[in-house]
Q: What sequence folds into this?
C-alpha cells in the first residue's frame, strides 16, 4: 500500500482571474499524498488555501477559478480535467468530504433518510428500501442512537452534535477510500468536539484521510502526519509528534506559541505579528518574511520545500535548530 | 421545536405536510379570511360549471333595473332584467378561470426559464435574460390586441396572452431566488456527495422555491384577474355575450346613473377576489420569512 497512495496531489496550482486581467494563484505548487490508514493534517490560517485544496480534490474548484498546473491522482486516476460525469461518480463514492457547518449543510426540508439514500442511490444500484437500510447502517456506524427512527427526522430536530454525525454519515455512506474533513469540529461545543474527533479518527483510519484545520490541538489529536500551509504553499511537513516537538519553520513555531496552555502557571500567548498575506501578494520573496522574527537577507527569495531529516521537509533558508550563526542576528 | 409539536391540534396533525396553513393565534387571521373567500369562489365556480344558471342569460324586460333586495331579487337586475347574482356567478368560470389559467401559464413558464438561466452556463443564461428583457419591454396591450385580432376573442386566446405577457416577471424572481439557493451549503453538500446538477435542481432547489412560487402565484392571480377585467372592459377580452366581470362592467357604463348596482356588483366581486388573493400572498410571504429566520 505504501507505494501506491490513495490520494496523490502533485505540484498543484489553482488560479483565479484577477481584476487586472492576470491570474491570482491561490494554491501554489502543493504536493501531498495520503496512504491507506493514514490521517494527514493540513494546517493553516483562513485564506491559506487549505479549503481550496480540499475542493480541488473533490473536483469542485469554484468558478471562475481553475487548476492551472499539477495533478490529483485518486487511486492512480488523474482527476484533473476529468469529465463531469466521471467526477460525479468518484465524488461521494470514492472520495467523500465532511463539511464544515452542520447547521446549514443539511437541507432543512428533507429528512435525514432521504438525504442519505439520495447519495446511496447515486452510487449504488440498489432499491429504495435497500438504500434506506444502508443509510440506517451508516447512521448507526457514526454513533447515532435510534437510527431507524432518525431516518424520518428533519435536520432541525437533531442537536448540533447529532447533525455533524449525520453529515459524517452522509460523507461515509458509500464507504469512500479517501475522506476529507474540512474543519469538522469548528462549529461545535468543546465537549462535542472531542466525541466527533474520536469518531473521525476511527473513520479516517479505516480508509485514508485529510483533516483540514486551523487548530493545531485538533490536528495533534488525530493526525499521523502534518502539513503546514501558508499563503498557498506548504512550508513544513513531517510526522505529527516530531513536527510539534521541534518545529523547523518559524511559522509552525509561531502557531505553537499562539496556542493557550493551561498546564503552566502563567500562560504567555505570543501572537504572530501582522496579518496573513493576501492571496495576491507577490510570491518572489518568502511569504512569511514580513512576520518572521528571524528574517534575513536571503529571505528576499522564496525558499523551496526541501527534505529535512527523516521524513520531514521544510521551506526555510534557516530552519529553527539549524547551525546557522547569523540567524538570530 | 418540541413546544410546537405539543401545541399542534389534532386536525392539523392530519395535515402534516400542509405547513402553509396558518397557525391559530399567530396573527394570521387575515390569511384565513382570504383562504375562506377563495374557497367560496372556487366552490361557486365549480357549481356554476356543473349546473349553468339559465337565469344569467334570460331576463324579463318588465323586471329590469331592480335594486338589490327589491321584489325578491337578491342583488338586483340589469338592463335586460337578468339577475345580477346569477350573472356574476356565471362570470366566475370566465374571469376566475382565465386568471387562474394565465397565472399557471406565467408561473410555469417563468419557473422553467428562471431555473434554466440559473442552472446554465453563461451563453444560455444570457439568451434567456435577453428574451425576458425583450418580452417585458413589449407593451402587453399591443400584444393582447394582436393576439385577439389573430385568434379572435375567447377563453384560451385571452388566458394565453396574459400568461405570455407575464411569465418574464416570474422568471426574474425565480432566477434570483434559485441563484441564492444554489449557493447554500446543503446544495454544496449534495454536490460533494456526487449528486448530479439536474437532480440537485429537482430535489433541492425546487422544493426550496415552493414558498416563493406560492406567494408569486397568489399575487399573479390577482393581477391577472384585473388584467382580464380591463381587457374585457375594453372589448378585446372574452366574447361580448359572455357574462365575464369585465364585460358586466363594460355594459354597466351606460346605465351608471339609473342602475349603479349593475356596476357595483361585478366591481365588488373583483375587489373581493383580488383582496383575498393578496391576503393569502401576504400571509404566506410573512410565514416564509419567519420560518427562514427560524432556520437560520
A:
Amino acid at each position: 500500500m505504501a507505494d501506491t497512495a490513495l490520494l496523490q496531489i502533485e505540484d498543484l496550482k489553482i488560479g483565479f482571474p484577477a481584476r487586472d486581467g492576470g491570474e491570482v494563484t491561490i494554491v501554489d505548487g502543493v504536493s501531498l499524498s495520503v496512504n491507506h490508514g493514514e490521517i494527514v493534517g493540513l494546517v493553516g490560517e483562513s485564506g491559506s488555501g487549505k479549503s481550496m485544496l480540499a475542493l480541488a480534490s473533490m473536483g469542485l474548484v469554484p468558478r471562475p477559478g481553475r487548476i492551472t498546473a499539477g495533478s490529483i491522482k485518486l487511486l492512480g486516476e488523474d482527476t484533473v480535467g476529468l469529465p463531469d460525469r466521471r467526477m460525479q461518480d468518484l465524488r461521494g463514492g470514492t472520495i467523500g468530504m465532511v463539511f464544515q457547518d452542520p447547521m446549514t449543510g443539511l437541507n432543512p426540508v428533507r429528512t435525514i433518510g432521504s438525504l442519505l439514500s439520495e447519495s446511496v442511490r447515486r452510487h449504488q444500484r440498489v432499491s429504495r428500501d435497500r438504500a434506506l437500510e444502508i443509510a440506517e447502517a451508516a447512521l448507526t456506524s457514526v454513533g447515532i442512537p435510534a437510527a431507524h427512527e432518525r431516518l424520518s427526522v428533519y435536520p432541525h430536530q437533531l442537536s448540533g452534535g447529532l447533525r455533524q454525525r449525520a453529515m459524517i454519515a452522509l460523507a461515509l455512506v458509500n464507504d469512500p477510500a479517501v475522506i476529507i474533513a474540512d474543519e469538522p469540529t469548528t462549529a461545535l461545543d468543546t465537549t462535542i468536539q472531542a466525541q466527533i474527533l474520536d469518531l473521525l479518527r476511527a473513520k479516517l483510519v479505516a480508509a485514508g484521510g485529510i483533516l483540514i484545520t486551523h487548530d493545531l490541538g485538533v490536528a495533534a489529536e488525530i493526525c499521523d502526519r502534518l502539513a503546514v500551509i501558508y499563503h498557498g504553499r506548504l512550508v513544513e511537513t513531517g510526522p505529527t509528534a516530531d513536527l510539534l516537538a521541534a518545529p523547523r519553520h518559524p511559522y509552525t513555531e509561531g502557531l505553537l506559541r499562539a496556542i493557550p496552555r493551561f498546564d503552566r502557571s502563567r500562560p504567555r500567548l505570543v501572537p504572530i505579528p501582522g496579518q496573513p498575506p493576501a492571496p495576491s501578494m507577490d510570491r518572489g520573496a518568502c511569504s512569511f518574511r514580513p512576520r518572521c522574527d528571524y528574517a534575513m537577507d536571503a529571505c528576499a527569495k522564496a525558499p523551496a520545500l526541501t527534505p529535512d531529516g527523516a521524513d520531514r521537509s521544510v521551506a526555510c533558508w534557516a530552519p529553527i535548530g539549524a547551525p546557522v550563526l547569523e540567524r538570530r542576528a | 421545536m418540541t413546544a410546537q409539536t405539543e401545541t399542534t391540534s389534532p386536525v392539523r396533525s392530519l395535515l402534516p405536510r400542509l405547513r402553509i396553513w396558518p397557525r391559530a393565534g399567530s396573527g394570521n387571521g387575515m390569511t384565513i379570511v382570504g383562504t375562506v373567500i377563495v374557497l367560496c369562489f372556487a366552490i361557486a365556480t365549480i357549481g356554476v360549471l356543473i349546473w349553468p344558471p339559465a337565469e344569467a342569460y334570460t331576463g324579463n324586460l318588465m323586471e329590469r333595473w331592480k335594486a338589490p333586495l327589491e321584489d325578491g331579487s337578491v342583488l338586483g337586475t340589469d338592463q335586460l332584467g337578468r339577475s345580477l347574482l346569477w350573472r356574476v356567478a356565471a362570470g366566475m368560470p370566465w374571469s376566475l378561470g382565465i386568471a387562474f389559467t394565465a397565472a399557471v401559464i406565467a408561473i410555469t413558464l417563468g419557473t422553467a426559464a428562471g431555473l434554466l438561466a440559473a442552472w446554465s452556463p453563461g451563453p444560455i443564461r444570457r439568451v434567456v435574460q435577453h428574451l425576458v428583457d425583450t418580452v417585458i419591454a413589449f407593451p402587453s396591450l399591443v400584444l393582447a390586441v394582436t393576439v385577439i385580432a389573430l385568434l379572435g376573442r375567447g377563453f384560451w386566446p385571452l388566458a394565453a396572452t396574459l400568461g405570455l405577457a407575464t411569465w418574464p416577471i416570474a422568471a426574474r424572481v425565480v432566477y434570483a431566488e434559485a441563484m441564492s439557493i444554489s449557493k447554500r451549503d446543503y446544495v454544496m453538500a449534495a454536490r460533494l456527495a456526487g449528486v448530479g446538477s439536474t437532480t440537485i435542481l429537482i430535489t433541492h432547489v425546487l422544493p426550496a422555491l415552493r414558498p416563493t412560487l406560492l406567494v408569486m402565484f397568489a399575487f399573479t392571480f390577482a393581477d391577472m384577474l384585473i388584467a382580464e377585467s380591463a381587457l374585457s372592459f375594453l372589448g378585446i377580452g372574452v366574447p361580448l355575450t359572455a357574462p365575464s366581470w369585465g364585460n358586466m362592467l363594460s355594459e354597466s357604463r351606460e346605465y351608471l346613473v339609473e342602475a349603479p348596482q349593475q356596476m357595483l356588483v361585478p366591481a365588488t366581486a373583483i375587489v373581493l377576489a383580488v383582496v383575498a388573493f393578496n391576503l393569502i400572498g401576504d400571509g404566506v410571504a410573512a410565514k416564509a420569512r419567519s420560518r427562514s429566520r427560524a432556520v437560520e
Observations:
- Residues 47 and 279 of chain A are 7 Å apart (CA to CA).
- The longest helix of chain A spans residues 190-206.
- The interface with chain B takes residues 58, 60, 88-93, 96-97, 99-101, 104-110, 115, 118-119, 122-123, 156-157, 167, 170-171 of chain A (CB under 8 Å).
- Residues 324-329 of chain A have pLDDT under 50 and may be disordered.
